[in-house]
């Protein structure tokens, strides 16, 4: 499904600011795998997702989706394989467009866009059904501009937009981090629902260890641009926060003050 | 009076073009000053060469499309800042416009233009000509309204609203940007062609400062009609152009001469942009804060508490402008 083969990414190479954000990272996801990604700040989690999505080019290595080499494909072309939700609730939707217009845009993800009507009656009915699954009452507010929604509502909508077109891979980058606990819990529940109902292959970054353990069937831990620990489906069933902390403390240079450990 | 109305409606074509770039695409396109003249020059020289005036006008639109496309290329493929890309095309067009015309001024006296039927029947400056021009601009307005609600149009709106998002949905924003710039300058060149035929000559400097006229129209229209929906915003651009002509008309009446009009226009735009600072006419600020893609403050009651919103928005680089408060 997704095959990441020894990819590397260095920012500002050869300068004093050089940052090796990814060093020889390999990762393989099978159909319907749901992998959670944890790690300290600056570990390279976002960079990993951004290289998969094509937002950042890689220096070396290869990325394959369904066997197709995509690492040279521009971001907008890769979009047909990928659904994404960003950490910033403002990032995943167009604030001046209405809910139904945003959904229409998402509906055409990776498809040609022509002069057909953006919001037809049939699409609207479809959107209402989909929005109803969020249980936020958004199905009655199709013509509301998205900029008027709360952060949690926008993030729930982003999640729906990313998932309802059955992407081959769903990329979630700390998509609950900017929300207050209650709304974060809501979006987490929705994530589970959308991923499991669509059987979506998912890569989810979180800095909440409990969430990382509770969600998904596999887990990876990153540090300084490398994957330093992996829990397979079997191992993950019995995984505890203590085990993860233990793995983490084996690292030299990692401090317990890291944000990832405070949750 | 009728003259001002007619001019307002003709220039509304340009205002619609400026609306497309400034408001929809969020792109400050200065190509306008050049492409307007390109439209006038192309139409005038073709008409003098004996081409049917409607064909000549269509050719002018084509020239404008190309001009806008070039600005788009410079910006997207060349990575040149939007303002600078527009200026580069605008300056370059000066020479091209001179080449097209062969000299600095091309009179269209006794040539057949698109206005000839009206003029010969003494209908220019009557309600009839105004009705015809109004119908024409309304057709263009509704064409824009329709276009912007198609799948393609929505992706253009999203390009102006949240590039990161629409790219993640598979849209090549380079293409939507170039397309919009081309369309916009097509409108502007059409306007230039109409103005040249209406006033009976094309002049190398006819486009100077027109970007401000377009802006003034869009801003005035927005102040009066708001910009909640596309239908209202484009209507605002159209009627804003008429309002602008009336203000100019009144300024001339008040004793200013035509050479003062550039300053008048500039002041008009400055005032319109500064008014919201003084807590008046709050609908305008989005133009001054062009870079601010984040929405205005959400309506109360529909959202989290401000603290939560602030937390949620903490990652946004485009923070909400001061004037929104
Ligand atoms: N666009 C960029 N330009 C330069 N350096 C970058 C860029 N993006 C990331 N980096 C650097 O690469 C490293 C990895 O960053 P990344 O954002 O992937 O970390 P992360 O694991 O997502 O951390 P966090 O938990 O803070 O989100 C960091 O040192 C960061 O400073
Ligand atoms: Mg990150």
Describe the structure.
The complex is a heterodimer of chains A (263) and B (325). With 263 residues, chain A is α/β, with parallel strands linked by helices. Chain A has a single domain (2-95, 168-262), classed as P-loop containing nucleotide triphosphate hydrolases (Rossmann fold), CATH 3.40.50. Helices cover 34% and strands 23% of the residues of chain A. Chain A has ten helices and ten strands. In chain A, strand 1 and strand 2 (19-29) form a beta hairpin. Chain B has 325 residues and is mostly helical. Chain B is built from 13 helices and two strands. Chain B has helices at 2-25, 32-48, 53-76, 82-101, 116-120, 127-148, 151-161, 163-168, 173-199, 210-225, 230-253, 261-274, 306-312; strands spanning 105-107, 201-203. A two-stranded antiparallel ribbon of chain B has the order 1-2. Chain B starts with a helix and ends in a 13-residue tail after the last helix. Chain A binds chain B through residues 53, 74-77, 79-80, 82, 84, 86-97, 101, 104-106, 108-111, 113-119, 145-153, 161, 178-180, 183, and chain B through 147, 149-155, 157-158, 161-162, 164-173, 293-296, 298-299, 302-304, 308-309, 311-316. The site of magnesium ion (MG) has 3 residues of chain A, from helix 1.
């Amino acid at each position: 499904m997704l095959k990441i083969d020894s990819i590397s990414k260095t920012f500002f190479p050869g300068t004093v600011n050089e940052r090796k954000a990814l060093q020889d990272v390999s990762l393989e996801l099978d159909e319907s795998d749901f992998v959670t990604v944890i790690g300290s700040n600056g570990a390279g989690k976002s960079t990993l997702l951004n290289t998969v999505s094509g937002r950042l080019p890689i220096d070396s290595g290869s990325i394959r989706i369904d066997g197709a080499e995509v690492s040279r494909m521009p971001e907008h072309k890769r979009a047909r394989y990928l659904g994404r939700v960003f950490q910033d609730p403002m990032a995943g939707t167009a604030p001046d467009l209405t809910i139904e217009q945003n959904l229409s845009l998402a509906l055409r993800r990776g498809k040609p866009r022509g002069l057909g009507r953006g919001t037809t009656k049939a699409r609207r009915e479809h959107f209402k059904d989909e929005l109803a699954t969020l249980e936020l009452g958004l199905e009655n507010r199709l013509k509301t501009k998205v900029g008027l929604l709360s952060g949690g509502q926008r993030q729930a909508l982003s999640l729906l937009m990313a998932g309802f077109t059955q992407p081959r891979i769903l990329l979630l980058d700390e998509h609950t981090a900017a929300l207050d606990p209650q709304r974060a819990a809501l979006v987490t529940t929705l994530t589970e629902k959308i991923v499991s109902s669509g059987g979506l292959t998912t890569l989810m970054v979180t800095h909440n260890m409990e969430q990382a353990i509770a969600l998904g069937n596999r887990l990876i831990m990153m540090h300084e641009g490398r994957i330093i620990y992996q829990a397979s489906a079997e191992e993950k069933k019995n995984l505890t926060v203590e085990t993860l902390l233990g793995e983490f403390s084996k690292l030299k240079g990692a401090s317990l003050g890291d944000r990832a450990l405070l949750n | 009076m009728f003259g001002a109305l007619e001019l307002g409606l003709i220039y509304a074509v340009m205002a619609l073009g400026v609306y497309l770039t400034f408001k929809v695409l969020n792109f400050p396109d200065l190509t306008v000053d050049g492409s307007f003249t390109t439209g006038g020059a192309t139409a005038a020289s073709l008409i003098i060469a004996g081409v049917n005036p409607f064909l000549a006008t269509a050719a002018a639109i084509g020239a404008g499309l190309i001009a806008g496309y070039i600005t788009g290329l410079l910006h997207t493929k060349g990575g040149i800042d939007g303002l600078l890309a527009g200026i580069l095309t605008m300056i370059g067009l000066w020479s091209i416009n001179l080449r097209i015309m062969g000299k600095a001024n091309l009179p269209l006296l006794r040539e057949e233009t698109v206005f000839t039927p009206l003029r010969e029947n003494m209908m220019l400056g009557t309600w009839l000509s105004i009705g015809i021009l109004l119908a024409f601009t309304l057709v263009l307005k509704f064409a824009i309204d329709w276009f912007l609600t198609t799948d393609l149009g929505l992706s253009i709106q999203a390009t102006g609203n949240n590039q990161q998002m629409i790219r993640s949905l598979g849209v090549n924003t380079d293409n939507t940007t170039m397309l919009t710039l081309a369309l916009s300058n097509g409108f502007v060149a059409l306007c230039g062609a109409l103005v040249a035929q209406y006033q009976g000559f094309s002049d190398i400097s006819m486009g100077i400062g027109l970007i401000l006229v377009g802006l003034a129209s869009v801003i005035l229209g927005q102040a009066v009609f708001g910009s909640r929906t596309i239908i209202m915003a484009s209507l605002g651009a159209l009627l804003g152009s008429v309002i602008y002509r009336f203000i100019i008309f009144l300024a001339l009446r008040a004793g200013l001469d035509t050479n003062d009009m550039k300053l008048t226009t500039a002041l008009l735009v400055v005032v319109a942009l500064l008014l919201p600072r003084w807590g008046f006419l709050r609908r305008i600020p989005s133009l001054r804060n062009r870079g601010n893609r984040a929405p205005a403050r959400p309506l109360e009651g529909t959202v989290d508490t401000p603290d939560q919103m602030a937390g949620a928005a903490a990652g946004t680089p485009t923070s909400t402008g001061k004037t929104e408060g």
